[in-house]
Amino acid sequence: MGLDEDSLEYHRTDPPGKIEISTTKPTNTQRDLSLAYSPGVAAPCLEIDEDEADAYTYTAKGNLVGVVSNGSAVLGLGDIGAQASKPVMEGKGVLFKRFADIDVFDIELDEADPDKLVEAVKMMEPTFGGINLEDIKAPECFTVEERLREELDIPVFHDDQHGTAIISGAALLNAADVAGKDLEDLEITFSGAGASAIATARFYVSLGVRKENITMCDSTGIITDERAESGDINEYKQQFARDVSDGSLADAMEDADVFVGLSAGGIVSQEMVASMADNPIIFAMANPDPEIGYEEAKAARDDDVIMATGRSDYPNQVNNVLGFPFIFRGALDVRATEINEEMKVACAEALADLARQDVPDAVVKAYGDDPLQFGPDYIIPKPVDPRVLFRVAPSIAEAAMDSGAARTEIDLEAYEEELEARLGKSREMMRVVLNKAKSDPKTVALAEGENEKMIRAAYQIQEQGIALPILIGDEHEIRQTATDLGLDFDPQVADPSVGDYEGYADRLHELRARKGVTRTEAGELIERDSNYFGSVMVEQGDADALLTGLSHHYPSALRPPLQVIGTDDDVDYAAGVYMLTFKNRVIFVADATVNQDPDEDVLAEVTRQTGKLARRFNVEPRAALLSYSNFGSVNNEGTRKPRRAAAMLQDDPEIDFPVDGEMQADTAVVEDILEGTYGFSELDEPANVLVFPNLESGNIGYKLLQRLGGADAIGPMLVGMDEPVHVLQRGDEVKDIVNLAGVAVVDAQKE
């Protein structure tokens, strides 16, 4: 099947289309329904009648955008009408929800008259927190947006105009920097004079480009003062008429620094590119075929050609999804009355700045594992980069507050945490720990310090103020890799091959002499094995915590810390714990990595330590010791172990959280089962600490929950050690290292 056939199948599969309505409040009982509708719903109605602003408090208005179109200029399909535009508008709603958690009603209006279109949208103002105009042809789109912005008290944004302008504006900021050119000196040629081209030219002026340096061409040629005076062009094109001779696009491109294409595919030749100024910037954004192909533009010159297109299969995709979801997110959250020029500039600057930062592994993987690093082939972020939400929405909110467009003032630092929570419970939970870490950063030793991921993690850890990282490894190699990665930081390095670490060898020999390790062997382990080096460093107090395991099997990475650091004084067993986060629930799973066949003493110790870990995430533990039976329904040695462990913990006066077992997994997590069949249980709410009876079941269980249950997993977190140590999984991403560094710092703070 081709793309068209696949798309038709995708859209017609039951239920047809791409969106649905879901409820956000319980509707399970008669009381729920009486609150949701009659008679209870009268109370919020009366409150809103008293003060219309309460619609934001009692309804979904503050998170609801209307995507409005009349279908007069749909993609490259032209005027296909309102009904045929509906798949596009539904798709827009999908993007709003996916990238910024904004709900959408798509509104297709069968109306060509701009005055009637305006009146129809005005009548819907009470429904929405904002209006996104879409696929309305020029020049009517200018009139419709201008009037609605003046007459409505909610944000109105025509994405076809401003989306491309903002995203390409961000690209322009960085492209000019890479090319070593100043915005005010740029000579810019536009191919196309429709809504997006005019809005883009206007926006470039807002960024600092001089209007007199912009040459705009339509299908007839250069837009000149002579053409404007003759009435050959509409009032919007006239804004960019120049006092120059008539000419073609080829004439306009000679000696230009920047080409901006918003017209038609294949109209620019290599000769036209060759005629441009040194190190030209080419934004060929016609879709699906750009004005000139990526390879052709690059091959036309010997110097650097900085190239952007609207396509995802080439570097520097100018994709509007980098803008509108996050612009509306910030605008809605401060109840903005408009989306003004200051907010648009703030968006472009935030995107430009983000492109200069280290790129998350997940984003790199999504684009084929090719390196993504600021430069000619990476001047704007990728749409799937989750950081766009955290950078753009706060910038929009701040600009709205500073410019007077906001009706509500918000705490920007707290706002970023709220945005993270929208993307998942795991981000919300990690923010708790990372904030604790930042309040009192500790020193974290990173074994395998020559690994690129460790170096990138060290940069982020230091940049965010989470910890003071020490990379263990060859200093020259580490610093060279940091330079190659474009990381602007001076890493602290411990190089075992050049430093004076004889004391570490002596200490390792002292600890392991009766285990067969000679002094010579100890010296070799310190010099060659960063796991032993880092373990002794922490044991000696030269670092507060250790992270290792990125390129080793878990048991071999765990062995040196256990041999050198060992477990806490009152703990006999370490354990590996995963935190699994679901939409509205957090569960800690133990033991998933260390103890193969624990007895009741080990199970009890694992439960104690996991309860302590849960509290570091501000979660009050409720522990269930799991089995395949419930409270003695099966009686054998396997079921007696968790039962005895639960009894030991219940008798321990130091255990100040509820514990029960043995019980089946569904009993532990389903409230109806606990309250109904097993109302005698010590757990009055579902468990959030699940202790599995052995390593096999723990590892299987957490992976099934993660994969089939859609949970995010953080860990494994090692509990019970005398000093903070965490062993990474092979292949963990940079964000996993940063997260575990935060956990290690909080562990060290407790120490």
UniProtKB/TrEMBL annotation:
The EC category is oxidoreductase
Protein name as annotated: Bifunctional malic enzyme oxidoreductase/phosphotransacetylase
Spell out the InterPro entries in the cross-references.
Answer: Aminoacid_DH-like_N_sf, Malate_Decarboxylase, Malic_N_dom, Malic_N_dom_sf, Malic_NAD-bd, Malic_NAD-bd_bact_type, ME_PTA, NAD(P)-bd_dom_sf
**Which key words are in the record?**
Metal-binding, Multifunctional enzyme, Oxidoreductase
User: What biological-process terms (Gene Ontology) are attached?
Assistant: malate metabolic process
SMART domains the UniProt entry points to: malic, Malic_M
Superkingdom of source: Archaea
Residues annotated as domain Malic enzyme N-terminal: 16-149
Which Pfam families does this chain map to?
Answer: malic (PF00390), Malic_M (PF03949), PTA_PTB (PF01515)
Q: Which cofactor does it need?
A: Mn(2+); Mg(2+)
What family does the entry list? In the C-terminal section; belongs to the phosphate acetyltransferase and butyryltransferase family. In the N-terminal section; belongs to the malic enzymes family.
Record organism: Natronorubrum sulfidifaciens JCM 14089
